[in-house]
Amino acid sequence: MMATLLTARWVIGFNRGTHVVHEDGCVLVNGDRVAHVGALPNPLPDCTRIDYGEAILSPGFIDLDALSDLDTTVLGLDNFPGWQKGRVWPNSYVARPPYEMYTSEELAFQKRFAFAALIRNGITTALPIASLFYREWGETVAEFDDAADTAEALGLRAYLGPAYRTGGQVVDTNGAIRAIYDEPRGLAGLEDAAAYAARIDGRAQGRIRAMFAPDRIETCTPALLSRTAAIAFEMGAPVRQHCLQSQTELRLVREQHGVSPIRYLADNGALGPKWLLPHGTHATEADMALIRDAGAALVHCPLVLARHGSMLRSLPRWLDMGITVGMGTDTWPPDMISNMQLGLMTARIADGHTAIRSEALFDTATLGGARALGRDDIGRLVRGAKADITVIDLGKTLQTTDPVQTVMVSCSGRDVRDVWIDGRRVMADRIIPGIDEAADTARAQAQFMGLVEKYPDRTLGHPPVSQIFRPSYTREILDRHGS
User: Fold this and answer.
1) Residues 404 and 290 grouped into a single domain
2) Interval 428-441: pLDDT, tens
3) Structural domain total, the chain
4) Are residues 405 and 362 both part of a single domain?
5) Is the pTM of this model over 0.90?
6) In the chain, at which end, N or C, are there fewer CB atoms within 10 A of the end residue's CB?
7) What is the CATH number of the domain that holds 402?
8) Does residue 410 form part of some domain?
9) CA dihedral 75, 451, 125, 340 (to 10 degrees)
10) Residue 180, number of CB atoms within 10 A of its CB
11) Is the Cα dihedral 135, 139, 140, 146 positive or negative?
12) Is residue 212 part of a domain?
């Protein structure tokens, strides 16, 4: 395969443990690796050349909590409290019992739709996350076989594994949320996930790797945590465990186990390197020390937090303590650039405008994610690293003298022009081969509305949709002529 030389106004390279900026630089791609970064080589090698002009050649973004379904955040944005609006199963739905609200074809489609959206936003490595609220219990191996096929076809670098759980949450008519359990079912889900992990790890020339995804720490039994930790450690696979994200979580873990969520993980041998912990908003100093000492990583998801009136306090403190921090999108749109921008803003609101700089957030979306996964071949553009490159077009932005600061002020995911993964150009001029964005968006909207129609089944008291979701303004019905 002939090498490809990419040139642009700005190149974010890597040297001596940190990113560096090259003005009017280049990246030489040879096979799946970066062969050269910096000034144009002299003499020029025999290669294909692509000049991106006013653009940034950036390391591909690493999304440790990557949206992989049709996000329902919009349904909870202005409709609260959540336990009255279908965000927690009522006892009556559990008695029904719960059922799958999507078909297998719909589950496969939403992965394809979401994976393409990740690529459009410059995300080259993704660990998918999806809600279990509308599932019968956990995710299935069959849908993740489809997910692996899709990731391989699109060229996405992905860590995959079906989410499993030993328990869930239910709410009564007084709004009291409690935990319910089916430990045998959860442990069986873990064993299925382990068999899947062993089968797919290393697929697609190593682009597809295994991960483990136990759901919601407040309903994970000790057996599930300890067994997950043992299997994942043996495989060297990452584990993602959402924790320290709500008062309900803290209350349930304290009531059931008498300790904080992080202490609960540690007490069951379920905290260590390659443990990825979204969101950390309710962490104490003691929690942070446990995370640091165990070598685990925080996954920061600023956009979804802010939409629910929350933020991390404080990112500078986590970084100052030496804790590895990566980034996650966890909501629609999966715009990593917007998450970096909001992460900078909320950190400055929490600690003052001089507490953190732009490059710290850029590091979390690149180097931090790589470090959390135990890798030194992604998240950076340097000779020998994987050729995962996000091309950010600056043609419509306000220019400054620094590319990272320009990204933090003027750009969004829509400015991502091209994406290269493993040396393959998986998106060119925002076109992904085999994907009809307009048709898929229309299908996604129709599928989403089908889910909305089922919301009364899992909402307390089973009110009609019109009572669950209140519109922003009174709607006036127009006839077909618009009068």
Assistant:
1) no
2) 999 999 999 999 99
3) 2
4) no
5) yes
6) C
7) 2.30.40.10
8) yes
9) -10
10) 12
11) positive
12) yes
